[in-house]
């Protein structure tokens, strides 16, 4: 990796990919105790078509990783070269996200390398359990400030159109209460809702992402407050904003 004053650029040849492993995910994890539980991880893959995908996740236990509500990685790239998957991303050394570990001049972490991950689904972004136990660093690895120096140049995000959406969730179970932000129940419900709508909303031209902001209790039901973002430049040429709003309503209905 390369360290800049405020950022870290991670680039790695993450596992040699053979014909039988081309369907595998890989990545890097940051742990405070060399255990899988309570691990901050960035996972991803490169499809046979060359399209890549990386996601900022949190592993709360020996279960599937949960997608972070705040995706704090950018300048993401991926390719397959000489039989190896090469992924690259940028993240800040320190983060306000409670699901991201911060590297400081005093705090260091163990690193995990899942060199042989499991099968991934490029459509719903679900992954299977790794095929081999990840390699774990024997010692904590420090990423300290390098002081004044060249700042990294980041790619500016394209203009986006945002919508606030409220969805009523019904039949969640008797006496079900809206989970508090940051709780395991919140993460589980937020990921379930986001995954479902993200699969449906890819029908909208320029769709970028749908994320859950909060859950509110309304009698026996729960209201999900969501944020929908569209890439303005990717919207169909000549399509009016009213048409896009109508498409959103059609998909959500």
TrEMBL record:
Top-level taxon: Eukaryota
UniProt-listed InterPro entries: DOH_DOMON, DOMON_domain
The name this protein goes by in its record: DOMON domain-containing protein
Coiled coil location: none
PROSITE patterns to which the protein is assigned, alphabetical: DOMON (PS50836)
Pfam families in UniProt: DOMON
Record domain DOMON: where: 1-117
Organism: Homalodisca liturata
